């Protein structure tokens, strides 16, 4: 048995436009200039308090920004003004892995549990994930707690666990939990940054990722 854990934003879901728009509204709500798009995306993967602390400093209006962001994000998503689209290939890979008897799927994300439940419902993934770790359940990435809890819940050892993500936070978390760290090149952090953060490999397509995972499943 092998546990394959996915990050969400930047890995499965191309949520950059929604995230940036919600951040802009949040900064406007507290009367501060919004960060650049690049800076906004650099903190994707962190839990909201940590993300806004990184953007404005510990002495900034972190709590107010986080509250305004949640409201803006929910409003924009509910109106479908900006869509959270799956990256091409994401749905097919998850469906393929879900059919594998030797695979347990997991999620480790900076999203809230409510956000993950919405995503699962929209895409019909109910019952697919054996463990879901969110910003509500554990310290923010890159702390290894999300993966440690995922392994504890499923009974899978580190040498049979894989973390897949697009951010340096995912890679550092994976290395801290002593699991395989696979980066993806289509997200919000560069392949060079992922390798520097400890990625064992960086995949440039979902087909390459699938081939790698099938080899791991066969060897498990």
TrEMBL record:
GO terms for cellular component: cytosol. PANTHER family: HYDROLASE-RELATED (PTHR43434:SF24), PHOSPHOGLYCOLATE PHOSPHATASE (PTHR43434). GO terms for molecular function: phosphoglycolate phosphatase activity. This is HAD family hydrolase. GO terms for biological process: DNA repair. InterPro entries: HAD-like_hydrolase_sf (IPR050155), HAD-like_sf (IPR036412), HAD-SF_hydro_IA (IPR006439), HAD_2 (IPR041492), HAD_sf (IPR023214), PGP-like_dom2 (IPR023198). Keywords: Hydrolase.
